[in-house]
Amino acid sequence: MRSFCVMMEAMTCSHVATLPRTVPPESAQDCVDCLALGERNWAHLRMCLSCGHVACCDSSPHRHATAHFGASQHPVMRSFEPGENWRWCYVDSAVV
């Protein structure tokens, strides 16, 4: 049986250049928006690289990371999962 690997090639986008050099996360391990609703049901966390807002991913019931982009227009989130360092640009719909 042959095994195939799919690699996501990161691209550059103009939005990365506009991000602050560092931004502290708003939460160490929770979706802030889910907690505000009294819920703790999320799949994975994302952190906004513009303001540090920590929110749940699109595999979670409320999709708060995408909602944050819609409300704030902050373009780039990163995975907030241990061992992951990829970033997603909502404007370019790309890993950056």
UniProtKB/TrEMBL annotation:
Pfam families: zf-UBP. Residues 11-96 form the UBP-type domain. The lineage of its organism: Bacteria, Bacillati, Actinomycetota, Actinomycetes, Pseudonocardiales. SUPFAM superfamilies: RING/U-box. InterPro entries: Znf_RING/FYVE/PHD, Znf_UBP. This is UBP-type domain-containing protein.
